[in-house]
Automatic annotation (TrEMBL):
Gene3D superfamilies: 2,3-Dihydroxybiphenyl 1,2-Dioxygenase, domain 1. This is Ring-cleaving dioxygenase. It comes from Haladaptatus pallidirubidus. It holds the Pfam family Glyoxalase. GO terms for molecular function: dioxygenase activity.
Length: 320
């Protein structure tokens, strides 16, 4: 029997200026800066993680901030159109007021699949949505957040993928990943068989040419696996679907496998552990640069080549 995934593990985008990126996700959206590290495949580029109070899988949006040296991305087929968070229904007015006070243009509210949705862009042009519902999950609160505990984002609701042809991507979601078609409402909705938070993938068709990866685009989306034993099951199962899957890669805080679905979106399957406290205690998450042990001998060189960064988490406890 093939494995099943409960849904999204994380979403990774490409940002420009690292300070602007961190300021927005920490001080505007109120997410916790849970890990400051580097891209293991490009060690002179930061890798930032923003999530709930504990960095729970299913709440983390992560970024490679390319700074001035990165090319600007161009949206098109084979890319993530929107990344969507859950909020409680009674929080909608709070978020509309907050985003307006930050001079952020908001589209909506609109109705989709019986739920209320608002849409806006981050400073690099990555499109985010908030879905307000009565059944939003309850994540781990971040006590120092500038957002009151009752109004904090509650992890991922879904992502929307834009592809030139729905059918091949839908086949990977259903036959490959165990998702089930749920409904159609201007887009095609698929939900993981086990359901729960972050279990939804929406598909829309676009006639735009293939997108160009760069600043302001999503690099990949990741699904949950329990452990590396389950990842081996995934590798065998996906290979049977004629998908080219990488070997298991150690990402320090989880292990990963990657493959590209036929529509062009890069998929990752990531383990639930060991988690972000493997090298920093809970109180210190995100406050200092963390490197995997295989890069620790290069710390001085890496730090000298990373752009300067004023961490918005430093001192934030005293501000709230």
């Amino acid at each position: 029997m093939p494995p099943t995934t409960p849904g999204l593990h994380h979403v990774t985008g490409i940002a420009g200026d690292p300070e602007r990126n961190a300021e927005f996700y920490v001080k505007t959206l109120g997410l916790r800066f849970v890990k400051q590290t580097v891209n293991h495949d490009d060690k002179y580029t930061y890798h930032f993680y923003f999530g709930d109070g504990e960095g729970t899988p299913g709440t983390n949006i992560t970024f490679f901030p390319w700074g001035d040296r990165g090319r600007q991305g161009k949206f098109g087929a084979g890319q993530t159109l929107t990344t969507t968070y859950s909020i409680h229904l009674e929080c909608l007015d709070y978020w509309l007021d907050r985003l307006e006070s930050q001079d952020i243009d908001v589209s909506g509210p609109t109705e989709r699949f019986g739920q209320t949705v608002i849409e806006f862009d981050d400073p690099d042009g990555i499109t985010l949505e908030l879905v307000a519902s009565t059944d939003a999950p309850h994540g781990h609160q971040w006590e120092a957040s500038p957002i009151p505990a009752s109004h904090q984002l509650q992890g991922f609701h879904s992502v929307t993928l834009a592809v030139s042809d729905i059918d091949p991507t839908a086949e990977v979601l259903t036959t490959g990943l165990g998702y089930e078609f749920e409904a159609e409402d201007g887009r095609y909705r698929y939900r993981s068989a086990s359901g729960g938070p972050g279990s939804i993938i929406d598909l829309v068709e676009t006639d735009q040419p293939r997108g160009q990866m760069g600043t302001g685009t999503i690099h990949h989306i990741a699904y949950k696996a329990e452990d590396t034993a389950e990842q081996e099951q995934w590798r065998d199962h996906l290979a049977d679907q004629n998908l080219h899957v990488t070997e298991i890669i150690d990402r320090k805080y989880f292990h990963s496998i990657y493959f590209r679905e036929p529509g062009g979106v890069l998929f990752e399957i990531a383990t639930m552990g060991p988690g972000f406290t493997i090298d920093q205690n809970q109180d210190e998450l995100g406050k200092e640069l963390a490197l995997p042990e295989w890069l620790e001998d290069e710390r001085n060189e890496i730090e000298s080549r990373l752009p300067s960064f004023d961490n918005p988490s430093i001192g934030i406890d005293s501000e709230n």
